[in-house]
Design goal:
Layout lengths: L6 H19 L4 H13 L2 H14 L4 H26 L4 H4 L19 H16 L4 H17 L5 H22 L1
Helix pairs in contact: 2-7, 3-4, 4-6, 4-8, 6-7, 6-8, 7-8
Pfam family, one: PAP2
GO molecular function: undecaprenyl-diphosphatase activity
Subcellular location: Cell membrane
Amino acid sequence: MRPNAPAVFEYLDMLEWHLCRRLGRYNLYRPWLTTLRLASGLGDWPAWVALIAALPLLHPEAGWRYLLQYSLTALIAIGVYRLLKTRLCRERPFITFVGNVSRQAPARDRYSFPSGHTMHAVMFLTLTSSHLPWLSPWLVPVVILIALSRVGLGLHYVSDVLAGGLIGMLFAWGSLAFAG
């Protein structure tokens, strides 16, 4: 772990790595591994850009306003996310516990806290549920799978995913409060 990572991460790493390894064992089942990889891919930015672009079609009365709101919220969230990730420097479980936690998908960078995939998934779920509640039954299972995939693929600790979800929810609530 880098020297400037908060000491709390070392403590959390020791608490969580067994769970990461245990969840990673399910990857022996090819269908589950494929499901996790697909879910992780859905959590990448193109899925959310597609959702934002579809807002004017999905909500003809206010879709353009929502498009602007979601876009600005996402840009602010990305900035804060990058700041947190590069300042807190928690290394991914497959790096810290080489040989004990295996990586089953490519990582974009070295650090894991917070989970950006989960942050965006929860943020867009919360925003969309507020404006287009009929999409929630479709989005909730996808968001859960995205969160599970990040730990299951060896890319994040559980606390990374929980923190990402909380941050995403806070951004969405702030956006909803600001936009009225």
